[in-house]
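Weekly puzzle thread! Below is a chain. First person to post its structure in token form gets bragging rights.
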Amino acid sequence: MKKTIISRISKYSPCSDAATWLGNQTNITEAWNACPRGDWMLWLAARVGVERPTLVKAAAACARLSFVYVKEGEIRPLKAIEAAEAWAENPTEENRKAADAAAYAAAYAAYDAAYAAYDAAYAAYAAANAAYAAAYAAAKLSEILKQCADIVRKHYPTAPDLERK
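Winning reply:
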């Protein structure tokens, strides 16, 4: 009998909604291709240790969906995403520090509306969290998460190896 996906990732403490959605699924490829939420996919990819630059690129592309919810004239989320993308293209210490500073600025800008992330590699992820919080208020979360899932599949067309880490 094949192990269920949830039994293979339970050590990472997935959220209850993701665990329920996975149910008794055993085929990670089928689950990956059908997953309706990009945030779950990013979470899993990060937990199993996929390459960080690609993860940041995918998160940044998802975060760009948030721009419709950013107050006109507020540039800190864009700067955080651009800094994270620069790090993903060229993961130097200098770019990590720039992304870290931009993440703090974006987190400060989004503090009342979303969760903040403080690691340079998560600068884009912080902006994505802002998008998710705003999307809840706009009742468009499921559509945005579906768009994010499609973006993540573009960056990771193959499901991550659950035994990687």
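Puzzle host: Confirmed. Bonus trivia for everyone else. DSSP finds nine helices and no strands in the chain.
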